């Protein structure tokens, strides 16, 4: 079933929308959450995602259903980490955060959150598609370097090098805009 058909089911308040959302994106959402929290917490995040999508469509009608659900799921997983404060659970997030700190060393010096978001979006739009996907899959979806190497057909060292250059490029862009 296509996304627009699933959204129509949500708009018509038909429970079938939830089963279609789960059928189409459940595995991807669980994978996303599992990269950030423990397995049982990931399942809870995914179930909470379904409820949140149900409660927010309508009035919202997202253009990209998976991106909409993934954002909700990711935020729920981050909230779980915040609640638990467990080092083991947040190890991946800490690793990714440390990588991005190279670009944004002190958030207190950065522009307001909305302005920073716009600068990062502009930066991502300026990248070639492959580099943009690599950046997003690493820093938004939390995929490991090994997973990225397999997906893109590169050696891990090349992926690490590409990510390093992308972070440096982002840092230069933010510096040029006086965002940091």
What does this 3D model show about the protein?
The protein has 9 helices and no strands. It is mainly α and 180 residues long. 73% of the residues lie in helices and 0% in strands. The protein has helices spanning 3-11, 16-34, 39-56, 65-84, 91-101, 113-126, 129-139, 145-152, 156-176.
What characteristics describe this protein?
180 residues, mainly alpha, Rna Polymerase Sigma Factor, Chain: A, Arc Repressor Mutant, subunit A, 2 domains, 9 helices
Assign the CATH architecture of the largest domain.
Answer: Orthogonal Bundle
CATH superfamily membership of the largest domain? Winged helix-like DNA-binding domain superfamily/Winged helix DNA-binding domain
The percent of residues in helical segments reads over 70%
Structural class: mainly alpha
C-alpha end-to-end distance = 45 Å
Element-by-element helix/strand order: HHHHHHHHH
CATH topology of the largest domain: Arc Repressor Mutant, subunit A
- Tally of helical segments: 9
Q: Mean pLDDT, rounded to whole units?
A: 85
